[in-house]
Amino acid sequence: MVATLREVAARAQVSVATASRAFQRPDMVGAATRTRILEAAQELGYVANSTARALVTGRRDVVGVVVPDLLNPFYPAVLKGARARARERGVQLLLADAEEEPEGELPLVRTLAQQVDGIVLCSSRMDEASLREAAGLTRLALVNRTDPGLPGVLADPEPGVGEAVRHLAELGHTRIGYVGGPEASRSDADRRRAIALACRTGMEQVDLGRFPPTADGGAQAAEAVLGSGVGAVLVYNDVMALGLVDHLRTRGIDVPGALSVIGWDDIEFAGMLAPGLTTVRVPRAEIGEAAIDALLDRGADDDVAPLHRLLPTELVLRGTTAPPARGAAPAPSQNV
Questions:
Q1: 232-284: per-residue pLDDT in tens?
Q2: Measured between alpha carbons, how far is 114 from 92 in angstroms, rounded to an integer?
Q3: DSSP for 253-264, written as a single string
Q4: Where is the HTH lacI-type domain (predicted)?
Q5: Whether residue 214 sits in one domain with residue 319
Q6: Which residue of 31, 85, 151, 330 is most buried, as measured by CB atoms within 10 A?
């Protein structure tokens, strides 16, 4: 069996990242350390050239990551976590953007499968038949989606949604709306179930519809929000929440005085609003790290049921929630 970079690193008593630099950027490694790594590689028969190693081992030491939209600020932290873990494990990342086109994901997998050892699909919206074809082309791991035959990493919505609903109830709210995302989004479906579960204790919930997962989509939701008469809303993601808040304020509507708004993700911009956006934090970097582990630790011929790892979410209190405005008249509602 051909030695791996991890085995070379262990023999030389250095990190995988240091061992990788010794071959790819030797100028960044001290002479004594580099000599120790090269000696360990020679003893183990490690093949450093990536092309030669691929011919010998069948591995390229490259993994692909497909995201639905690189412009979505949710993904940089996920990718940063994935990149850090990949470097620790001696592999490189190859990134592809589906540009919010679910039907474009499978063609990307077909192209990448010839160049990588496996692919992480982030928030994939491809249909089941396409996912089955993709799984037949290369090893897969899923982020924010589950499949009984594939490893996956998900943000568990229940802790964060539960905290958000309890927080609004403690403020005195009795009716909350949900500004939803795309119909094909599995995360949206999971969130709706979590909201329904959290509201069983007496909170009335109102479905305000589905909107594009963008700032413009949040602004488009304003009419539905105002027409519903709710005093608080949970929003599919922070980008939409920020778009909604900005639109309402341009119309002279006070947030949180007239309406409480809670986002989802805790992107970097969430704390820059004045006041900052109350939101549910998703552990994005940890998701990226766990996705790489799920992909690389799952043996190609492993018949053991893959692990679906759930990472907890949590409420982050900032400045867009407040007690309901006095004298607000309840409006007829349509339950989620």
A1: 999 999 999 999 999 999 999 999 999 999 999 999 999 988 889 999 999 99
A2: 15
A3: --TTTT-EEEEE
A4: 3-57
A5: yes
A6: 151
DSSP state at residue 69: -
Q: What whole-number distance in Å separates Cα of residue 215 and Cα of residue 188?
A: 17
Task: Report which of 101, 103, 94, 92 is spatially closest to residue 66, judged by C-alpha positions.
Answer: 94
Type of residue at 299: G
Assign 185 to helix, strand or coil.
coil
Same domain for 245 and 319: yes
Which residue has 């970079």 as its token pair?
A: 5
Query: Distance between alpha carbon 186 and the CA centroid of its chain, in Å?
Result: 12
| Number of domains the chain is built from | 3
- Which element (helix H / strand E) includes 97? strand 92-97
Total count of residues recorded for the chain: 336
In terms of domains, do 279 and 161 share one? yes
Report the CATH number that the domain containing residue 40 is assigned in CATH: 1.10.260.40
Q: Which of 186, 52, 57, 60 is nearest to 112 (CA)?
A: 60
**Alpha carbon of 145 to those of 81, 193, 241: distances in Å?**
18, 15, 23
Please give the residue range of the domain that contains residue 110: 62-150
In this structure, is residue 189 part of a structural domain? Answer: yes
